[in-house]
Model the fold of this input.
Amino acid sequence: MNFCIKTYGCQMNERDSEAVSELLLRHGHTCVENESEAELVIVNTCSVREKAENKAVGKLGVLVYEKKSHPGRIVGAVGCMAQRMKENLFKQVPELDFAVGTHRLAHLPAIIDRVLNGHGPILDAEENDERFDELAGHIQGSISAFVNILLGCERGCAYCVVPFVRGRERSRPAAEIIDEIRKIVAHGGIEVTLLGQSVMSYGRTNPVWPENYVSPMGFTEPLARLLEVVSGIEGVKRVRFTSGHPSGITAELVRAMSELPAVCEHLHLPLQSGSDRMLKMMRRGYTADDYRRSVDLLRSKINGMAFTTDVIVGFPTETVEEFEMTRQFMEEIGFDNSFIFKYSPRPGTPACELKDDVPASEKMRRNKVLLVVQDEMGLAINNRIVGQSVEVLVEGTSLRNQACWAGRTRTNKIVIFEPKPGIKPGEIMNVRIERAMPQTLYGKLI
Ligand code: 5AD
Ligand code: SF4
Done:
């Protein structure tokens, strides 16, 4: 049947949606872009903040309401909310046909068949260690691909729902990852992003390299070794990994990043707060100074290193002074981009036991302040690039202006430029930057 997938949440969810899509195609279903043509609509959900959940519930509500004008339409929810809420999701969206958790995505074709045979609604949110990755295909022709290297997370940040929705941490054997990347390249992939909720813990809970493995560059750490091999795969031009944590910025990792030409000079390194008391309450496992030292180390070895981050404002008991520490710290580091979130209590997390005592209006104020700070910083950093030539991986026509094309720098900045005849997505070209905005660069092909 015709299906369409709507995705909320992080890159891991994007990746899951791609894999689900591939799986359904292999089972004879057809993917359509336009929701109104779909007989089966799947919403891949996120639980990280209440707002994300509300959005998905709203979307599902509209989709089931539209069953009136789309007789026979099947509507399902997959991913983190299905995993977290289980049968309660059916209370919020009564006409939902199925809800399938993060561990059970591989069973979707069979679940859809059961719904089609009149056995719905179906809930499958069991928790197990099933390797969804083994089923993971790739989108044919996609230039840039995400590859899961580690599932789950056990870092135990006080605010975070991930351990509840993605399960315990497990690392994927390096051989499997390398095999998947070879296939991606064979289908035209050029850039790979290695994904894990806590990517720097790769290989911590289970062995991922054979015992007698010897890294040509002498690396002993699992992630540095992986970067070495992945960058060496013929056809791989750019390698990224996300999300980072200061504890993982070791001398070896820095050496891997600086000596392997394919590894991009950008890191998403969530900060969350610039106050040590807040970081402690958040159970982040580092101080602001640890964070600063990680950034300094990377900057000292890698020219033009770009940093992006996540920050939470209004965590329980955060004072105005502590918030100011975050603001100052952000300015000190100078982030290329950041994502600012208002604290949202998540059921079952340790922080949820604490009183959510920063008023919504104050969270909003702090959020706005940091957005302005980020825009100013982003603009100042990008203005320094004006006049320079940057290497751009061409993605295709720009979403905003069809006459222009868009691509990304190695530092993960979007570049808008006028195309030249015969240009193709996937090409690497040099662009001279002429104008900068906080999150976008504009230039001319050289
Ligand atoms: N409230 C607000 N923001 C959160 N994040 C994670 N959990 C919460 C929460 N309960 C943010 C963090 C994380 C990003 C993905 O989402 O900043 O890095
Ligand atoms: Fe959202 Fe976290 Fe699930 Fe990603 S893993 S979709 S951020 S809840």
Q: What stands out?
A: The mean pLDDT is 94.
